[in-house]
């Protein structure tokens, strides 16, 4: 009986470590009341010491049933330790053509892992700041939405490419 407990514990430890061995960074920030203000910029600071390895960067989002759009526009920037900056405007699909939310989850909360950049390295040692801002607007409106309802959490995940 004791042997089975030890074997089970060993399998659990191996499973957990094998799932996360390529994850370099994984962090979420909560959006208060699931209302993402247009001026609220989510910042993540990554300290890079590995200047050679290739990485994939993902934006992770959790949304609830209050999210009313089929897509999502984001402005994402990376500030390098040497003050060089990259800024991208991105669009992601959030629903299927039938209107069902994409992502995983069996409750009203769906989690989406959105590909941002693949096979990139961090060429300069130091702190990289990745910031994410919502850039949604309604059709035929020039002004962006002041509040984007339904996004509960915004995350960033970096995985080392093997």
Give an account of the 3D structure.
This protein has 162 residues and is mainly beta. The protein has a single domain, classed as Sandwich (Jelly Rolls). The protein has 1 helix and 10 strands; from the N terminus they run αββββββββββ. The protein has one helix at residues 2-20; strands spanning 23-30, 35-37, 42-48, 55-63, 71-79, 85-93, 110-120, 126-134, 147-149, 151-160. It has a 4-stranded antiparallel sheet, with no helix packed on it. It has a 4-stranded antiparallel sheet with strand order 3-8-5-6, with no helix packed on it. Strand 5 (71-79) and strand 6 form a beta hairpin. The termini are far apart.
Compact summary:
This protein has one helix at residues 2-20, and strands at residues 23-30, 35-37, 42-48, 55-63, 71-79, 85-93, 110-120, 126-134, 147-149, 151-160.
């Amino acid at each position: 009986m004791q042997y089975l407990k030890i074997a089970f514990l060993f399998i659990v430890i191996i499973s957990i470590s094998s799932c996360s061995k390529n994850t370099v960074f994984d962090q979420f920030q909560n959006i208060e009341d699931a209302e993402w203000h247009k001026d609220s910029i989510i910042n993540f600071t990554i300290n890079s010491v590995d200047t050679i390895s290739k990485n994939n960067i993902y934006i992770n989002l959790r949304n609830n049933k209050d999210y009313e759009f089929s897509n999502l526009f984001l402005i994402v920037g990376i500030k390098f330790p040497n003050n060089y900056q990259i800024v991208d405007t991105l669009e992601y699909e959030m629903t299927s053509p039938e209107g069902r939310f994409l992502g995983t989850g069996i409750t009203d909360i769906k989690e989406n892992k959105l590909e941002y950049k693949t096979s990139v390295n961090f060429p300069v040692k130091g702190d990289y700041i990745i910031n994410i801002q919502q850039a949604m607007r309604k059709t035929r409106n020039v002004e962006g939405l002041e509040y984007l309802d339904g996004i509960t959490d915004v995350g960033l995940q970096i995985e080392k490419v093997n």
